[in-house]
Amino acid sequence: MGRVAVIGYAATPVGRLQPQGPESGSLEHEVLADVVLRAVEMAQVDKSDIGGLSFAQPRPYTQQKYFATFMASYLQLPCDGFVAEVLGNGMTGGFAFEHAADNIRTGRAKVALALGVNYETAIPSGEHMMSSMRAVGDVDFQAPFGITPIAWYAMDMMRYLHDFGATREDVATVAVKNRHHATLNPLAQYRKPTTLEEVLDQPTIVHPLGLFEVPPRSDGAVCLVLADEEVARASGRPYVVVRGTGFHHEGAHQITATPNDMIALNAAQKAGGQAFDEAGLRPSDIDFAELYAPCTIVEVLVSEALGFAPRGAGARFAAEGRTSLGGDIPLSTSGGLTSRGHPAYVTPLYNLLETCEQLMHQAGERQVKDASVGLATAELGNYNAALVHILERVSA
């Protein structure tokens, strides 16, 4: 098996794209088709070269069903590689990327697309929350009590503050840092700078997390063009290769029946270890990381689990500016889920796009200087499972 490369990408700005009620607007397949055309144009491959389509399964609110086969028809793309929709909750986009990569690794395709669209902002909050409550807990035990994803993260934060003596202010600096990064990202949903005082002054969502410390509801569409490295090398242009991949599911859903350390993020530790071993690298070799972190505390915890900060020091690293652009290890250079936005099923694809954009030295004002190796993550549940990719720039 040869290495898998990324040779093209495109996305819509994250925000509110879903038509509101009877108002006219672009349907999911129309928005995604435009993104595909732009990504393929960047890749400079012929339409006939594309042999596989791996979709992040759309949200249940999507009007067009059998979305993958419909899009193959809409794009007029016959394929010998697999055409499929992949679902894995918050990891959905990451699994779509892996599915496309496997189309290439197995020789079914020389070029494959990892793509998806997420529409949810026009759905009533009550309907959306009822779906979330059935997803994040046991429908017999936890869902009747109204548990939400943010509630799990809030419990993590309370545990972290208790165990390590960090302050809420330390953790809140993650939101300030990510908003600054987002001001430099044309794809970000929220680009107005904010201060620590403003973050702390926001309404509480679930104590101790406030409005700016949790993710918004978002729409978005994204496409990455993957290719066998031979194809990428023949282009004569720089490209990005997948150097290491790791995955672990700890066999638990939110809270395990087996006593464990709830804020150690065991799955992220193991998946990260696998990815580093496969790449032959250490955390200190990574130039930046784009983390799947729905809340400020999650970025702190996963930064520690992956070895970018010592245990208990992640919040302090953020407060000291060590995870900001120009710092020791810039994290969430896109603005992260709290500011770049969180179109859930395609969020991992946006994370991978940001990683590729940095490695292709196309990130503009938020460019990490001389970036050559980056890391991206996706999570399932309360980091009960983690998917880690290490990507590397290859110059022409």
From TrEMBL:
In which organism is this protein found?
A: Citricoccus zhacaiensis
The Thiolase N-terminal domain, residue ranges: 4-191
What SUPFAM superfamilies is this protein classified in? Thiolase-like
Residue stretches making up the Thiolase C-terminal domain: 255-393
Give coiled-coil spans as residue ranges.
none
UniProt protein name: Acetyl-CoA acetyltransferase
